[in-house]
Amino acid sequence: MASREIDSIVFPNIVLNITNITSNGTSGNNIAVDTAGFESAEYLFFSTVDFTDGDYLLNVFAGPTDVAAIHTLVPSSDLTSPDPITVSGFDELFRIGYIGKERFVSASITATNVTVGARIGSFVILNTPRHAPTPPGPGFQP
C-alpha cells in the first residue's frame, strides 16, 4: 500500500523523444538535462508496441555543459549496471542509474539489425533533491 508521495522529490525529463527508428545508426543525443540540485539520476529506456525488429543500445552521455553534442560516453563505472542496456522486443522497460560527477546528462540509441524498425524513447528522473519540494516537471498540468 502506497502511503507516501514522491511527486515532491522527483523531477522527470525527456532525454530522447519517442523516435521511430527505421535504419541502423545512432539517434538522439540532442537534449541535455541539468542535474544541478539533485543527488541522483535514473534513466528509463523503453520500446512501444510498434516494435518490429532490430536491437537498440542505450548510450548514456555526460558533460560539463548543456551542449549534448559534446558530451562523452559515460564509463560503466559511473552507471549502476556495468552491462549494456539493449532493447530487443516490444513493451520493454529498462532502468539504469547515473552516479557520475558531471552536471549535464544526455542519451542516444544505437540501432543494429534493423529492417523495419521500432519506436524507442528514454527519459531521466532526477531524484534526491537538495531542496524539496521540486518544481513541476515539463508538461505539468495542475
Please give a quick description of this structure.
This protein is mostly beta strands. It is 0% helix and 48% strand. It contains no helices and ten strands.
What does this structure look like?
The structure is a single chain. The protein has 142 residues and is an all-beta fold. The chain has one domain: Jelly Rolls, CATH 2.60.120. The chain is 0% helix and 48% strand.
CATH class type: Mainly Beta
Task: State the distance separating the first and last CA atoms.
Answer: 25 Å
Number of strands: 10
* Structural category: mainly beta
CATH third-tier fold name: Jelly Rolls
Summed up, the helix count is 0
- Major sheet details: 6 strands, antiparallel
Q: Hey, roughly how much beta strand do the residues contain?
A: over 45%
Shape estimate: globular
Mean pLDDT: 83
Rg calculated over all Cα atoms: 15 Å
Share of helical residues:
under 10%
Assigned CATH architecture? Sandwich
Helix-strand sequence: EEEEEEEEEE
List unreliable stretches of 5+ residues.
none
- Count structural domains: 1
How are the SSEs placed, and which strands pair?
Layout lengths: L9 E12 L3 E4 L4 E2 L3 E10 L7 E9 L8 E2 L12 E2 L5 E6 L5 E9 L5 E12 L13
Q: Which tags fit this structure?
A:
142 residues, mainly beta, Jelly Rolls, six-stranded antiparallel sheet, four-stranded antiparallel sheet, 0% helix
